[in-house]
Amino acid sequence: MNIRPYTIATNFQNLSSHYDFLSPVQLDSSLAVKQLKDIRYKKTETSDLKLDAYIPEQKNNEKLPGILLIHGGGWFSGEKENLGVLAQALAANGYVAVTPSYRLGGEAIYPAAVLDLKDALRWMRKNAKKLNLDVNRIATLGGSAGAQLAMQVGVTPDSEIYDEEDQEFSSAVQAIVNIDGVTTFVHPEVEKGPLLNTWLGGTYEEKPEIWKEASPIEYVNSKTPPTLFVNSAQPRFHGGRDSYIDLLDQYNIYSEVHTLKDTPHAFWLVNPWFKPTLRYTLDFLDKFLKEPYTPPYRTIKVAKNDQADFSSIQDAINSVRVFGPGEVLIEIAAGVYKEKIVIPSHITKLTLKGSDREKTIISYNDHTGKIDELTKKEHGTFSSHTLLVQGTDVHLENLTIQNTSCNEGQAVALHVEGDRFVAVNCKILGCQDTLYAAKEGSRQYYEQCFIQGTTDFIFGQAIAVFQDCTIKSLTDSYITAAATSRNQEFGFVFYKCKLIADKDVTKVFLGRPWRPYAKTVFINTEMGAQILEEGWHSWPGDSMFPEKEKTAYYAEYESRGAGASAENRVEWSHQLGKWEIEQYSLRNIFNGWIPAMYKR
């Protein structure tokens, strides 16, 4: 076989003949990163295997998360320096980044590379003190063939297949980043050929068991790490990805996919595509690795029987120590809990976790104008909630929160005022004013949630991100009514969401400004035919705040579906460009806070 060298320089030379705006990535000597070069981590019969380590310069000895970056090159070429620029950039953002060499196919066929890379992980753990590394927060990352290897290492921790049972140090990782590599060798989409035949020791017909053994998709289970895919526009490098994600979904394991439009393979080694690759990688890894995991200091069980600590969710909350020493987990069994619940500001670091969002339901039915049974006063919008969250660092997971009042006035299901709020895999159900994302400066993150309502059913002043959520309109009306303050850079951001509606709903606006400086942005969102082509409404007739279209900021980026109509949107809205979209990272939107998903 004629194996061509695969380096940053040769990749640039190849791509620049097709794209005249590229430049190769380069190390940045101004970054506060220390580099340890060419350290031998393993000696084999044929070579000394070496690695480079990029370590953040820091004034203290804080233990940092780590990343093993694995270069590509078709299993037969490439060099560790290919990912040195990415490693340096990750180190500048607080990660210990290690780029190892490994035995290529011309020196030793599968499984040699996998064994080498597992040994590189063990070297990292063995030398954790020197690296300032937290051994419980490590990810694998790879590009192209390196992505397949990063996944294979990531999904086979301490595996019998690779004779790892008696090793002193673990090869387990807590996250995986796949940059344009396949997840399987047996999927019909994956191209087979001489390179794979040689690396796997025979054709698929000759050695199907080896081809299957070397396929990461074969090992997905409940303990598989969360996985990020950053892909080119070339489908053949996505082989098996969607099937892999389907398996992760079965175990409720987090995944992300980002496809860079109009990109070739090996996009991550050239500008301008290096920067978004780094941004997606940091946003993902920060979710899972930036904060060390500390288990709850107390777990409380709630159920509709006498086998639990409490039968009432509010009673369980009331038992939590004020400003306690750490997280408290309240596990809620299946059942319908007819309660009006408040998590007060002095209760922090609290997680309410249901057994199943379809079966663990918190329900109430207050609405504006209704007389409160205790106070004998009429409810207003801001007291109509089913669940009120005032405490900081409150998480909800696997729950339904609903207000069953409909067409009786404003009726809030979930009202959130606390900072650093997270809701994952929840259903938030109501009619008018379903979700009140309240309070200026409050940072709120909703992931894989289902939110439905009639009018202005996502409203408020908060900085709120909705990722991979389904938003359902029950009537012809408005989805959002932001009240973003003038000095707040971000309001509501919807990312990869899906907008649906009841069958008779045909006229829905994306939003209208409750207050003059409302900010709402939809990014990569699928919009059903119910979305009107003008998209946005200015809410005229407000004598206190006239001409809000002059101050509100409404924007979209690559909306799709029957309701996407960029050319017909109101003239005062915006269509974002590919460079403007870079500011919409979680790190930037939330001013440094990244919703930590490591507990999942």
Number of strands: 36
Distance between the termini: 45 Å
Largest sheet, in brief, is: 11 strands, parallel
Strand content: 25-35%
Strand order in the sheet with the most strands? 11-12-15-18-21-24-27-30-33-35-36
Anisotropy-based shape: globular
> Treating each run of at least 4 consecutive H or I residues as one helix, how many helices?
11
Helix content: 10-25%
Q: Give the overall pLDDT as a whole number.
A: 94
The assigned structural class equals alpha/beta
Low-confidence parts, pLDDT < 50 over ≥5 residues? none
Radius of gyration, in angstroms, nearest whole number: 26 Å
Provide a quick synopsis of the model.
By secondary structure, this protein is α/β, with parallel strands linked by helices.
SSE order and pairing:
Layout: H1 8-16, E1 23-24, E2 33-43, E3 48-56, E4 64-70, H2 84-92, E5 96-100, H3 112-126, H4 128-131, E6 133-143, H5 145-155, E7 175-179, H6 194-199, H7 208-213, E8 227-231, H8 241-250, E9 255-259, E10 270-271, H9 274-289, E11 298-302, H10 313-318, E12 328-332, E13 335-338, E14 341-343, E15 350-354, E16 360-364, E17 387-389, E18 394-397, E19 400-403, E20 414-416, E21 421-424, E22 427-429, E23 435-437, E24 443-447, E25 450-453, E26 458-460, E27 463-467, E28 470-473, E29 478-482, E30 492-495, E31 498-501, E32 509-511, E33 519-523, E34 526-527, E35 553-557, E36 574-575, H11 586-589
Parallel strand pairs: 4-5, 4-6, 6-7, 7-8, 8-9, 11-12, 12-15, 13-16, 14-17, 15-18, 16-19, 17-20, 18-21, 19-22, 20-23, 21-24, 22-25, 23-26, 24-27, 25-28, 26-29, 27-30, 28-31, 29-32, 30-33, 31-34, 33-35, 35-36
Antiparallel strand pairs: 1-10, 2-3, 3-5
Helix pairs in contact: 3-5
